[in-house]
Design a protein that fits this description.
Order of helices and strands: HHHHHHH
Mean pLDDT: 77
Number of strands: 0
Strand content: under 5%
Shape: elongated
CATH architecture: Orthogonal Bundle
CATH superfamily: Histone, subunit A
Low-confidence stretches: 1-15
Helix content: over 70%
């Protein structure tokens, strides 16, 4: 089972540009005797946004495409109507990631009890105090 199926996340189609819009753009741009398959249309969607996002990323001298680059690419490609909704989803995703990261910290992953951690801390303080006092004598 994929992560999308477990988490109830929307299908890829729900996260993409409307196919009817893309088909209209293709029809307007291509000669009348050219027909695009579904795969071609999907590839156009993926490549255009990814390519534009990459260009924006490179202009900012960044090495990783961030969500902000995708939002900017949607605007640059003329999909302003979708930017707000995509931004809302992006913000919700960041919030979920942040909440998930808070749940699992390195301290909790050590498997050491609070009492043992406190004992180790007190021991380190004592050792540090001894070194400090030895240097000042």
């Amino acid at each position: 089972m994929s992560d999308n199926e477990r988490s109830g996340a929307p299908a890829d189609d729900d996260l993409s540009l409307p196919k009817a819009t893309v088909q209209k753009l293709v029809n307007e741009m291509m000669p009348d005797d050219v027909v695009c398959s579904k795969d071609t249309r999907d590839l156009l969607i993926d490549c255009c946004v990814a390519s534009e996002s990459n260009e924006i990323c490179e202009k900012e001298t960044k090495k990783t495409i961030a969500g902000e680059h995708v939002l900017a690419s949607l605007q640059a490609l003329g999909f302003d109507d979708y930017v707000e909704e995509v931004d809302d989803v992006f913000k919700e995703h960041k919030k979920q990631q942040k909440d998930r990261d808070k749940k699992s910290t390195r301290l909790e992953n050590t498997g050491i009890s609070q009492e043992e951690l406190l004992r180790q801390q007190e021991l380190l303080f004592a050792q540090s105090r001894q070194k400090f006092e030895a240097q000042n004598q």
